[in-house]
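PROTEIN DESIGN WORKSHEET
SECTION A - STRUCTURE
LENGTH: 478
C-ALPHA CELLS:
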C-alpha cells in the first residue's frame, strides 16, 4: 500500500474537488491499495461501479421540475471505506513471525477493484432497510413509495441526488443516512459531476460551461473564432493521411461525448467523428476542430427544463437511409420529451443495412421504443410507409425480410400501448440527429430541443479564475 497525495510532481491536482468556477474546494490525501496487482479469482471476484445513466438524471430532474419538488445533493465522505470484503488482501504483505498466514481485510480500501461493488452493496442494503427499492432499468436509481409519498435517490459512486414530494420525509431519511455513513449535506443541487444547475423562475437550466471551457483549453482553441453551426458536410473521408496523435484525438472526442449529456445539438457531429477512433485521419481531426469553435460560440448554452401543464410523453424518430458511404448503413436518431422537456436522445448508426427508406425508418422506430415506458406515449415519424407498416396488421411480402424482432412495434400499436403518428419533415425534430442541416433549420430545431443560453450567462476569464455573470437579454426558448 502507498499514500497517494492529491498533488503529484509538477503541481498538477489529480482528484482535487473543485467549485463550479474551477477554484479548489479542498485538498486531501488518501491511503490507496495497489489494486493493479490483484488477480481475478484470487484477490477479487466481481467488479461493479454505481454509475447512474445520464438519461435517468435528466428524467428525474424533469419530474422534479414538473412537480415542483426540491432537489438535494449529498456527498459521501470516503465512500469506498464503508464496504465489507470477503476476499484476501492483495500480495505484498507478510508477517515474518507467521510467513504462512494470509491477512484478510474486513473493510475495502481505495484502489481495490472490488471497492466500488462493496460500497454499492453496503449502500443498497441500508436503503432497502429504509424502504427503498432498486429500479430495474437503472440499478443506481432507488425509489421509495409509501402511501402518497414518492422519493427518488440517484447514486453516482459517492455523489447522491435526492428528491421527492415530502421535504420532512427527505430530511428524516438524510438524518438516517448521516447516522450510518459520513455524509455531507450540500443543500440544494448546484454542481453534479461537471453538470451545472442554474435555477430559473419556472424551472432550471442544466449546462456544462466549465467542462466545455476545459475542452477548448485542452485543444488550445480558447481564442478560436466562434461559428454559428456545425459541420458543412455529412460524410467524412475514409481515406487520407493518418493523424499523428491518436491519443489527443480520442481524448477530445471522448470529452465531446461527455459534453453531449446537456448538448444534444452536437450529438450528430460527435457521432460522426466517434466512428474513427481506431485510426483517425487528418480530415477527421479537422472535423473535431470544426466542432470546437461551435462549442466556443455556444459556451453558456444548456438544456432547459421548465414546468408544463401537460406531463405527457412524446417521441420523435427519424432515419437517413444508407448515408454511410463505407458501409451503406443508415443513421437513425430519436428524441423523447417528458412534459415538453427533453430527457433522452440518440444519434447512432444502425447495426445492419436497410434495403429501403421504409425499413430504415421502421428500424429507427423500433430502436426508440426501447427507451419508452409501458404507458401509451406518442411516436412521431416522417415516413408514411413506416407508419403504415406499424399500424397495418397484414405484412406485405416486401417487408418479410425485416427481422421479426422489429415487428413488436406493430404489436404495441395494436395493443394500444403505443400511438404512432405521421409528422412532416419540416417538423421532424429528430432530423438534427441524422444529417447536417442548414443553419436556420439547425438553430430552429436546436431551440425546439430547449437548448440555449440561460438567464444568467457565464463569462470566463482567459486565464481561469472566477466567473463573471451578467443578465442575458436574448433568452427565448419555446
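SECTION B - SEQUENCE
RESIDUE ASSIGNMENT:
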Amino acid at each position: 500500500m502507498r499514500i497517494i497525495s492529491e498533488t503529484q510532481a509538477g503541481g498538477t491536482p489529480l482528484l482535487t474537488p473543485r467549485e463550479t468556477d474551477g477554484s479548489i474546494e479542498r485538498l486531501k490525501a488518501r491511503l490507496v491499495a495497489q489494486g493493479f496487482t490483484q488477480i481475478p479469482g484470487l484477490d477479487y471476484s466481481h467488479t461493479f461501479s454505481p454509475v447512474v445513466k445520464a438519461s435517468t438524471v435528466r428524467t428525474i430532474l424533469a419530474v422534479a421540475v414538473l412537480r415542483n419538488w426540491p432537489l438535494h445533493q449529498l456527498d459521501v465522505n470516503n465512500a469506498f471505506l464503508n464496504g465489507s470484503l470477503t476476499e484476501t488482501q492483495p500480495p505484498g504483505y507478510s508477517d515474518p513471525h507467521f510467513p504462512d498466514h494470509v491477512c484478510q481485510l474486513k473493510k475495502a480500501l481505495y484502489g481495490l477493484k472490488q471497492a466500488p461493488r462493496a460500497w454499492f452493496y453496503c449502500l443498497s442494503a441500508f436503503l432497502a432497510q429504509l424502504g427503498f427499492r432498486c429500479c430495474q432499468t437503472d440499478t443506481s436509481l432507488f425509489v421509495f413509495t409509501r402511501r402518497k409519498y414518492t422519493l427518488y435517490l440517484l447514486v453516482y459512486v459517492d455523489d447522491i441526488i435526492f428528491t421527492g414530494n415530502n421535504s420532512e420525509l427527505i430530511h428524516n431519511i438524510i438524518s438516517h443516512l448521516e447516522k450510518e455513513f459520513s455524509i455531507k449535506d450540500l443543500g440544494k443541487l448546484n454542481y453534479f459531476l461537471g453538470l451545472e444547475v442554474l435555477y430559473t423562475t419556472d424551472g432550471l437550466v442544466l449546462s456544462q460551461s466549465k467542462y466545455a471551457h476545459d475542452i477548448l483549453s485542452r485543444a488550445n482553441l480558447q481564442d478560436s473564432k466562434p461559428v454559428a453551426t456545425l459541420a458543412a458536410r455529412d460524410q467524412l473521408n475514409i481515406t487520407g493521411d493518418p493523424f499523428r496523435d491518436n491519443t489527443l484525438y480520442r481524448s477530445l472526442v471522448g470529452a465531446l461525448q461527455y459534453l453531449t449529456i446537456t448538448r444534444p445539438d452536437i450529438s450528430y457531429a460527435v457521432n460522426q467523428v466517434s466512428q474513427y477512433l481506431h485510426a483517425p485521419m487528418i480530415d477527421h481531426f479537422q472535423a473535431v476542430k470544426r466542432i470546437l469553435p461551435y462549442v466556443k460560440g455556444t459556451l453558456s448554452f444548456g438544456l432547459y427544463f421548465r414546468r408544463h401543464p401537460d406531463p405527457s410523453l412524446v417521441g420523435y424518430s427519424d432515419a437517413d437511409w444508407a448515408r454511410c458511404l463505407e458501409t451503406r448503413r443508415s443513421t437513425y436518431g430519436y428524441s423523447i420529451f417528458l412534459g415538453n422537456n427533453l430527457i433522452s436522445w440518440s444519434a447512432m448508426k444502425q447495426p445492419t443495412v436497410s434495403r429501403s427508406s421504409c425499413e430504415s425508418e421502421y428500424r429507427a422506430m423500433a430502436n426508440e421504443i426501447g427507451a419508452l415506458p409501458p404507458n401509451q406515449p406518442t411516436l412521431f415519424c416522417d415516413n408514411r410507409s413506416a407508419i403504415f407498416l406499424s399500424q397495418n396488421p397484414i405484412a406485405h411480402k416486401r417487408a418479410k425480410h425485416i427481422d421479426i424482432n422489429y415487428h413488436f412495434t406493430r404489436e404495441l400499436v395494436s395493443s394500444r400501448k403505443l400511438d404512432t403518428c405521421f409528422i412532416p419533415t419540416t417538423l421532424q425534430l429528430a432530423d438534427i440527429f441524422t444529417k447536417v442541416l442548414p443553419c436556420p433549420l439547425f438553430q430552429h430545431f436546436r431551440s425546439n430541443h430547449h437548448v440555449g443560453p440561460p438567464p444568467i450567462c457565464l463569462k470566463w476569464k482567459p486565464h481561469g479564475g472566477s466567473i463573471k455573470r451578467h443578465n442575458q437579454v436574448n433568452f427565448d426558448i419555446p
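SECTION C - NOTES
The first strand starts at residue 2 and ends at 4.
Residues 94 and 133 are 42 Å apart (CA to CA).
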